[in-house]
Write a structure and sequence with these properties.
CATH superfamily: Amino acid/polyamine transporter I
CATH topology: Amino acid/polyamine transporter I
Number of domains: 1
Radius of gyration: 21 Å
Distance between the termini: 14 Å
Shape: globular
Strand content: under 5%
Order of helices and strands: HHHHHHHHHHHHHEEHHHHHH
Structural class: mainly alpha
Helix content: over 70%
CATH class: Mainly Alpha
Number of helices: 19
Oligomer: single chain
Largest sheet: 2 strands, antiparallel
């Protein structure tokens, strides 16, 4: 049973902060070493990040229309249920409950542990990651107002720190030795399996551009503020990402991006060493570890709202609908916390990244495809916002995402298959619920 009051609503600034915080974190601070392992042209890597920006921006523009049509919390669960069939929406919600947020929370927490351990060698990265997830889950359990303020402060500090790195990086001596100019060897790299594999890490970095859709019911005037928050947050992050990765390549030698253990995860800390010196680099690594708290917090705020929406709609998950007197979905937060802890203690960072990217691409593809379906089926449905440059924008998103899904299966079949099976496993669960009369 839901014990939820109307509570406070999230304004445009906080909704945008949640989008930014969901996006900025794990991927941009950890993935460059994995890209440099297979790509040898800095120009190609920059193309990779610009392409990621295009996917995120086109996706945000499309989700703005979906969110204005269906301004309820739940994201893909909400959209796919209404556009296609409740079965498909249930499968998307099942993915959100099991891995859609819990796995990115785990990846961000694991990265936080790595950064902290790079400064304090005595620290146990895994234990720290688990502790942070538990503490932030508790903070987000107090009230929407407390969680929103915490989100605003941590996100603002995060953006200032990134701008700080960019400004000082531009004025640093160039130590990077990866070719940054265009050459004929760029095109073979762009069409190589390494480029496709690297795109999964970039896809993770840009994931979160749809975050406001998961908390639509909590946003003031969602038909207007939801599309705005998606676009503003995504545009800001895309701009910062492209410049930040240029700075990383500008100051960091290729040989440093790899070590005897493989790709370097704490790339921002390594780059900071060349910008600020050894001591300054350690201080920046410590700062970045704390900045990842904002990313973890945003996903812990957004994810349980999907579980709560499913609990309201499906009796089989009715326990997720329980909320305290301030409308906080306590059980949903607790379950997501436990699943995140499972990933932290059982999976490697790269496995989590690929598993997340493939699984989420499936449902964002179907959601954006739904714009064409709704324009055809329900042309008179109220739309406070329509996708800019339709149909070009959704076509670009669908084409690139389809390419990612295809190469995901081709280059990482095991992780991709696990992701697909996770999504499909929600369907028999939905059918079981209906058969037993509990859905």
């Amino acid at each position: 049973m839901t014990n939820k009051t109307s509570g406070d609503k999230i304004n445009l600034f906080t909704a945008t902060s949640i989008v930014v915080a969901n996006m900025v974190g794990t991927g941009v601070f950890t993935s460059l070493g994995f890209q440099a392992a297979g790509l040898h042209q800095g120009y190609t890597i920059m193309v990779l990040w610009v392409a990621g920006a295009i996917v995120a921006l086109t996706g945000a523009l499309c989700y703005g229309e979906l969110g204005s049509m269906f301004p309820q919390s739940g994201g893909e669960y909400n959209y796919l249920s209404k556009i296609y069939h409740p079965t498909l929406g249930f499968a998307a919600g099942w993915v959100s409950i099991t891995v859609g947020f819990a796995a990115p929370v785990a990846a961000a927490a694991m990265a936080l542990g790595v950064y902290f351990q790079s400064v304090f060698a005595w620290a146990n990265a895994t234990a720290l990651a688990a502790l942070v997830v538990v503490i932030i889950s508790i903070i987000q359990s107090f009230s929407l107002k407390t969680g929103g303020r915490f989100q605003n402060y941590t996100t603002s500090i995060k953006i200032l720190a990134i701008v700080f790195i960019i400004v000082f990086g531009i004025n640093s001596e160039p130590s990077g030795d990866m070719p940054m100019h265009y050459s004929s060897s760029v095109w073979p790299e762009i069409f190589s399996p390494a480029f496709a594999s690297s795109f999964f890490f970039v896809s993770l970095a840009y994931s979160g551009w749809n975050a406001a859709g998961y908390i639509a019911s909590e946003i003031k005037n969602p038909q207007v503020n939801l599309p705005r928050s998606l676009f503003l947050g995504t545009a800001l992050v895309a701009f910062l990402y492209v410049i930040l990765n240029y700075i990383f390549l500008y100051v960091t030698p290729v040989s440093v991006l790899q070590n005897e253990n493989g790709p370097v995860v704490d790339i921002a800390g390594v780059a900071a060493h060349y910008i600020f010196g050894e001591k300054g680099g350690k201080i920046m690594s410590l700062i970045i570890s704390f900045l990842l708290i904002s990313t973890i917090s945003a996903m812990i705020m957004a994810g349980p709202r999907v579980s709560q929406s499913m609990g309201n709609d499906h009796k089989i998950f009715s326990f997720f609908s329980y909320a305290n007197s301030k409308g906080i979905p306590l059980i949903a937060i607790g379950v997501q916390c436990l699943i995140s802890l499972f990933f932290i203690f059982t999976a490697t960072f790269s496995q989590v990244v690929i598993y997340i990217a493939f699984t989420l691409n499936l449902f964002t593809f179907l959601s954006v495809l739904g714009i064409f379906i709704m324009r055809f089926k329900s042309p008179d449905h109220p739309r406070h916002y329509k996708t800019w440059a339709y149909p070009f924008v959704p076509i670009v998103f669908l084409a690139i995402t389809a390419w990612l899904i295809y190469f995901g299966f081709q280059s990482n079949p095991i992780e991709s298959l696990y992701g697909l099976l996770t999504a499909l496993s929600g369907i028999p669960l939905w059918l079981l619920g209906r058969k037993k009369g509990i859905d």
